Amino acid sequence: MPTYTAPVKDMQFILHDVLKASESDIPGYAELERDFTAAILEEAGKLASDVLAPLNTVGDTEGCRLENGVVYTPTGFKDAFEAMKEGGWNGIDLPEEYGGQNMPYVVGTAVGEVFVSANMAFNMYQGLTHGAINALLAHGSEEQKATYLPKMVSLEWTGTMNLTEPHCGTDLGLIRTKAEPQDDGSYKISGQKIFISAGDHDLSENVIHLVLAKAPGGGEGTKGISLFIVPKFLVNADGSLGARNAVSVGKIEEKMGIHGNATCVMNYDEATGYLVGELHKGMRAMFVMMNEARLGVGLQGYAQAEAAYQNALAYAKDRLQGRAVTGPENPGGSADPLIVHPDIRRILMDQKSFIEGARAFTFWGAHLIDRAHRLGDKDAEAMISLLTPVIKGFQTDKGFEMTIQAQQVFGGHGYIEEWGMSQFARDARIAMIYEGANGVQALDLVGRKLAAEGGKAALAFFEMIKGFIKENEGNEALKSDFLEPLKAASKDLQAAMMFFMQNGMKNPNAALAGSTDFMHMFGHVCLGYMWALMAKASAEALSAGTSDATFHETKLATGRYYMARQLPATGLHLARIQSGAEPVMALAADQF
Amino acid sequence: MPTYTAPVKDMQFILHDVLKASESDIPGYAELERDFTAAILEEAGKLASDVLAPLNTVGDTEGCRLENGVVYTPTGFKDAFEAMKEGGWNGIDLPEEYGGQNMPYVVGTAVGEVFVSANMAFNMYQGLTHGAINALLAHGSEEQKATYLPKMVSLEWTGTMNLTEPHCGTDLGLIRTKAEPQDDGSYKISGQKIFISAGDHDLSENVIHLVLAKAPGGGEGTKGISLFIVPKFLVNADGSLGARNAVSVGKIEEKMGIHGNATCVMNYDEATGYLVGELHKGMRAMFVMMNEARLGVGLQGYAQAEAAYQNALAYAKDRLQGRAVTGPENPGGSADPLIVHPDIRRILMDQKSFIEGARAFTFWGAHLIDRAHRLGDKDAEAMISLLTPVIKGFQTDKGFEMTIQAQQVFGGHGYIEEWGMSQFARDARIAMIYEGANGVQALDLVGRKLAAEGGKAALAFFEMIKGFIKENEGNEALKSDFLEPLKAASKDLQAAMMFFMQNGMKNPNAALAGSTDFMHMFGHVCLGYMWALMAKASAEALSAGTSDATFHETKLATGRYYMARQLPATGLHLARIQSGAEPVMALAADQF
């Protein structure tokens, strides 16, 4: 059975040595001393290793079941959820007035990674609740907040997001679920929603569904959409649970992975719903919380890769097979461990250098969200808005690729379910699809974010990279291994943007045909930048005579690997982009 | 439920327009007229579409079961296997004296693709038998051939290959299964073998296991290994079935995919076995048939991609979602079909251009095997020996990637099992692992094949490419779109080989750290060459006023896509290779 240990040291390195959290002017950051974050992350790690990780295979094997309209989660999930509630983990970064601890989002993100790595399907029950809470915080009335948030923050009640219908996912303008206004100000919601994660289960007393539906008079397409609260059990004035609402589970989907999470078809049959925010402004309410939700999915990408990597590494050190080409390294044994072989090293270094870079990128993103929310920093908001599709799309594509690599280390043992490596890949696969398929992320990036506010954030991004390179050009530890590759990759990215500007106006397909390549090269430049930041921090620690020289030397070597072997991918992506729309769009649909 | 239609037209294009089969001097090729191959492929296509494809999901859902020592295959497999037997499909490229039809291997390969696309797990029962037949043809005694081959060619009996043990897969030198010589010339075989595909089942009367084991006196490592026939039921002198042999199924593995095939743990408990070929020369016997077996797995890579692509394409044409950025293309409908979107096009073109290129590459490989076997052409044998790890490793890596892309077209519907897209990916995944994991293919390519006979085959490969480019340099239809990119990619490949030669002697890790990158760039150059050959054939057909101009124009456009957007990957692989061993090997094992 696979195991998991929280990478506390690496997380602390990013929080304290790279982001220098406790020196920040963001409210709540000053308290983030090393001892404090260590205590939190180690505690989360204990829950993850001892309780959540052992249930990961159980969840995969048993799955959820629907019996007489009731959804049952796998053995052990109920107890684990109780432990999660008791630890107060859900509220760690939520407002104190609703029972949370109001810590920075970056702390919630680090803790989230630990739980997602240990058991992604399980953590989704909480993750969806967190998303619903954010929607209510941003758009709910005071009364709605008072009614729902305390119970949701404590996880006594959980939440869901209901967007997709059988005939539409990406194109929400096609939604058919209806909301009919009632005399008392409520609505009757009718329709079918599909792919509803954590749609129903036996972990909480109530499930608060947030549902997109069309109320009369809103016009065509997405303009007519509003957001509604539809509780599984109606809530009485005193906060106690009332009648069962007319919402039911049609079925639980059979999926490739995340079997431990109940992905439900939800049927609304004149269910009572309450409008959230303004009528016909439901899409806006959704978009507000998308940055955080998408960052959370981008996190799933590398968090699954982390769990898979830990097990692949252990196997590579343990499994004896073949001899090092440079001579036996385990002469007393029947063979050398797999890790002596260069191609196994390559696979492990690909994983390690991606995961550590992605972790830094994600924490940086969370830090930008903290700046935006806690300081009202508009530049930070514009920057995270630009980076969100990159974090989501790039990291889940790569993260999945890395789980496949980790599985490959096991050979045939990776293909059988016994070792758990298949599950990491099958679970990670969904992150490329939900919360906006990765092609849609690329479209959002190129079609919307890049040009937003006259390209302000994109220009700021390039200025930031340029500034960093200039500022450190005298730093010999960074120069040839980090700054020069970063400069070259950033130049590729700018050339791609230039190509879009020159050709996209005449033919928007010229930009969109390169959108996924652009998203990937953007991701590489971000990870290259993260590695340069991390290298700088490690070089400084070594100069200062750190007591943990091995950690920082390892960090530098891992960064060099990324810069030498991963970052040059920007050149390939640029070549593809510059080939334009013609090769992509040459065929008529019936020529395929 | 997914469907499948055999791509007969594309196969015929490769056989007749590109390989010009009927003009070849290879015995058996003259009969390959268009009408003849059409008849065969359409007949195979009918069986595939009507019988095998509908059982693909059944096999995945039901899997195989072991009850009281007996293995049962999924519902319908028995009838389908009878149809396969009746059609004589297994013997199509096997010798007439054992009941086969002695057609060229390239025909067997085309037919094999059809069956593998329709139902990979099912086709493995036959595929493994085919492999065992080849081993016996090459190394069995006349008596063994007479006893086993007629029944195996007709599929009354099936075959297996037993190599892997719990503690060793790649490193067969560690094998523990023992063979004790008996007075009557037979051996008693004892040990445990794992991951035995089609290890037991209810489709045939007898299962002929080919087992690697160590007989006394053979020395350490792979030198001591011999190959044995171990029949499930012993065979009497008159050919009838005798006593049950002491071989039993320990369990059926739970796997990520190919659930329809019984992957067995086989226990040999002093089972009666018969030596095949020379004592202690078992590895040599194995290696002889590896080229064909690995080509067959390389075929699985693109054949699964083909099946997945056909369904992704149908969905992309059918599913209405969003509007084309250049204006509605289905103004009367609620939205445009997915295929209008450039990023969906990109995904489909990636698949189409890879699959058609890989099909040509594989058929060319089969054609080389025909040259080697039927003409005794040593150059062809050296060439296919060089290309085999590329066909296996590159095509299964890419083929899997393409099934993931096809799944992505379906969004959330690709993740649920209902549409069958998850199965294509889960089934395709194994091809990267078995028959030598892809890292081992890369090692075989760089560590063995590249330098074999003084690099003769590699040099011949580059001469061939150079010759083709020179011969066609006046061809304006090919020049900028095909010849120039091919030249550039081939130059990258040569530069990589040069790097290995210059650095690999001092430090073998400098070559091995780049082995997978080299395998991939080699694959790209081969597909680029195939596309140049296909473009030439299509350009000629168009000049000659073909009646099917659309087919050939589509072919040219698809080729241009590959050359513009896939082939430039050689530059990235070269950059990685040239970064050398240092980034890959920098860390000590305990620094990970």
Describe this protein's structure.
The structure is a homodimer of 592-residue chains. Chain A has helices at 8-18, 34-52, 54-62, 77-86, 105-118, 120-139, 142-153, 282-318, 342-375, 378-409, 412-415, 421-429, 438-449, 452-471, 479-504, 508-512, 515-543, 549-566, 569-578, 582-585; strands at 65-67, 70-72, 157-162, 178-181, 187-197, 206-214, 225-231, 233-235, 241-244, 247-252, 263-276. Chain A has 592 residues and is α+β, with helices and mostly antiparallel strands. In chain A, the strands form three sheets. In chain A, strands 3, 4, 5, 6, 7, 10 and 11 form a seven-stranded mixed β-sheet that branches. The first copy, chain A, has a two-stranded antiparallel ribbon with strand order 1-2. The first copy, chain A, has a two-stranded antiparallel sheet with strand order 8-9. In chain A, a hairpin with a 5-residue loop joins strand 4 and strand 5. Chain A is globular. Chain A starts with 7 loop residues before the first helix and ends in a 7-residue tail after the last helix. In chain A, 62% of the residues are buried. At the A-B interface, helix 9, helix 10, helix 11, helix 12 and helix 13 of A face helix 10, helix 11, helix 12, helix 13 and helix 14 of B.
Give the arrangement of secondary structure elements.
The structure is a homodimer of 592-residue chains.
Chain A: H1 8-18, H2 34-52, H3 54-62, E1 65-67, E2 70-72, H4 77-86, H5 105-118, H6 120-139, H7 142-153, E3 157-162, E4 178-181, E5 187-197, E6 206-214, E7 225-231, E8 233-235, E9 241-244, E10 247-252, E11 263-276, H8 282-318, H9 342-375, H10 378-409, H11 412-415, H12 421-429, H13 438-449, H14 452-471, H15 479-504, H16 508-512, H17 515-543, H18 549-566, H19 569-578, H20 582-585
Parallel strand pairs in A: 3-6
Antiparallel strand pairs in A: 1-2, 4-5, 5-11, 6-7, 7-11, 8-9, 10-11
Helix pairs in contact in A: 1-2, 1-9, 2-5, 5-6, 5-8, 5-9, 6-7, 6-8, 8-9, 8-10, 8-12, 9-10, 9-17, 9-18, 10-12, 10-13, 10-14, 10-17, 13-17, 14-15, 15-17, 15-18, 15-19, 17-18, 17-19
